[in-house]
Amino acid sequence: MNKRFRYYLFLTLITPICFEIALRILGYSPYEQTEYSISSDPTMCLKASDELGFSLGEGEYEVSVNGAPKYTATHIDGKRITRTSDQELSLPTAFIMGCSFTYGMGVTDSVSFPYLLQQEFDTLANIENFGVPGFGNVQSYLQLKREVKNGNKPNMVIVNFCDFHHERNSLTPGYRNSLVLGYQRANHEVAKELAKSEFPFMENGKLKTVAFASMYSNWPGRETFAAVHYFQSNNDKRLSEKIDLEKNSLVLFSKMKAFCDEHKIKLIVTGLTKNKATREFLESLKRKGIRTVDISLDLRKKKYNQLPYDSHPNEKAHAYFAQALNPIIGEWLSSLSPAN
Questions:
Q1: In the CATH scheme, what architecture does the domain 38-219+244-334 have?
Q2: What per-residue string of b and e applies to 125-138 under the rule 16 or more CB within 10 Å gives b?
Q3: What rounded mean pLDDT belongs to the chain?
Q4: What gap in Å lies between CA 203 and CA 249, rounded to an integer?
Q5: Phi and psi for 157 in degrees, rounded to 5?
Q6: Are 81 and 74 in contact (CB under 8 A)?
Q7: Considering only CA atoms, which of 38, 222, 42, 229 is closest in space to residue 134?
Q8: Tens digits of residue pLDDT in 78-95
Q9: What's the CA gap between 193 and 49, in Å, rounded?
Q10: Rounded distance, CA 73 to CA 45, Å?
């Protein structure tokens, strides 16, 4: 019995060691978080939200991403500015909604495409930028409902869709990892602030929330052992494969369309990322009676991104998006004229 016990003990000890060595030989390694940093003066420009996960801090900030030259970001009433003067309240209003692409991460206020659109239609419409870095379409839906409830009802809403919004709408393990571990590494001040947040997401067609503090964590030893990283990565993949990402997003946009129809708000969904997933989802939305417009760019091209610092759209990309949306805004405004 003693000999058998020692044999099983030996196997118990040696098997994990052999498995670890085999994984290393095959090229696997312990977990390493992709380096990402964001700094903001005079304080952090992102705040916690118990409804949306994130919110924008009020005021003017000097921001740098991954050590890039600083850019100016000005937030008023939870939105990035689209003008330096006050709104003309008698004019029709369009909400531009989305993530950091819409917000204009990495570019100064006057370069973001919602700002450029406001300058183009300055005497004809109010263009409001509701984009926030890290948002999916779930937050856009909740923002819209909140604004209407508070008496700020738009005449038109443009929701900018990117293929990676599917993961954000469903809060997949991969995106939870990026949010929690990414911010813990990127900026401890942000991570500490977001510990107070609740993040919304879609699960089986229903809207739910999860606390940032309990959203995701590495298994013990993941950053030391390739085996732990291997098993947690496979577990994350297994959980992700159980999620019908497109269905959740379609249900979400159907809710948004029903809300807009109820309140007589014109809804348009644009595609910003040039790939098969974006095209196919726009087609799915069309079949549900939602108007879509493909204004996508191949943001992998150097002339449209901010590499080597960051892959977000640059000034040239924002100019392109504004030009592509100009006729959409113009058509909408023409439909509001008394003659029509």
A1: 3-Layer(aba) Sandwich (3.40)
A2: bbbbbbbbbbbbbb
A3: 91
A4: 10
A5: -125, 125
A6: yes
A7: 38
A8: 999 999 888 777 899 999
A9: 9
A10: 8
Q: Return the structure tokens found at 265.
A: 């708000």
Q: What is the pLDDT of residues 3-57, one digit of tens each?
A: 776 666 666 778 888 888 888 999 999 998 777 788 899 988 988 888 999 899 9
Per residue in 264-295, pLDDT (tens digit) is 999 999 999 999 999 999 999 999 999 999 99
Alpha carbons 153 and 146: distance in angstroms, whole number: 10
Q: Are 183 and 191 contacting, i.e. CB atoms less than 8 angstroms apart? A: yes
The Cα–Cα gap between 40 and 189 comes to: 10
**Strand, helix or coil at 123?**
coil
Q: What is the DSSP letter of 87?
A: P
CA atoms within 13 A on the CB side of 204: 1
State whether residue 318 is helix, strand or coil: helix
Q: Which among 236, 278, 240, 321 has a CA at the least distance from the CA of 137? A: 278
**Residues in Cβ contact with 296 at an 8 Å cutoff, skipping those fewer than 6 apart:** 271, 272, 273, 274, 275, 278
Please name the helix (run of DSSP H) or strand (run of DSSP E) that holds residue 153, with its range, or none: none
Residue spans per domain, the chain: 38-219+244-334
Residue found by looking up tokens 């008496």 in the block: 151
**What SS3 state is found at 154?**
coil
Angle between helix axes 245-262 and 137-149 (nearest 10 degrees) is 20
227 closest CA partner among 34, 84, 16, 73: 16
The DSSP result for 128-186, as a single string, is EE---TT--HHHHHHHHHHHHHTT---SEEEEEE-TTHHHHHHT-HHHHHHHHHHHHHH
Maximum Cα–Cα distance for the chain, whole Å? 96
